[in-house]
């Protein structure tokens, strides 16, 4: 099979036209343009690659109906959202879809259903660990969860795990004592 990138118009010409200088020069000039076009064709397969520009990422997000897409997010997060869009649509309405989307945008996220933490049926909570949580991020978080959760489920609360690094000292000591009892004998 002939690769398009290796194809020359001279190879396609019959022998009688290859000897004509004007036709040969025209074919060689067109080869340059064909090479440029071939390079552009390689970039058409947007979903087969992940090095999208800002514009391409935004276009793909629109094309694949990314449920939660914010053009102000960092480029790497937006690329990941686009890559996950089709698998996420397949699992939309499931706790794993909520977890995946929350993890992509906020770092860590775990969904706990009502029976796992003792709540009323139909409720769930999301456990995250993002110490830089602000009011704006809280509103953003609710939008993210609402975009993929099932409509019959209700977000009860968001639990933010706060962890701090520190040094813990543990010590164990033992003491051995001889007990001497003195009794007075009469």
TrEMBL record:
NCBIfam families: tail_P2_I
Protein name: Phage tail protein I
Organism annotation: Paenibacillus farraposensis
Pfam family, one: Tail_P2_I
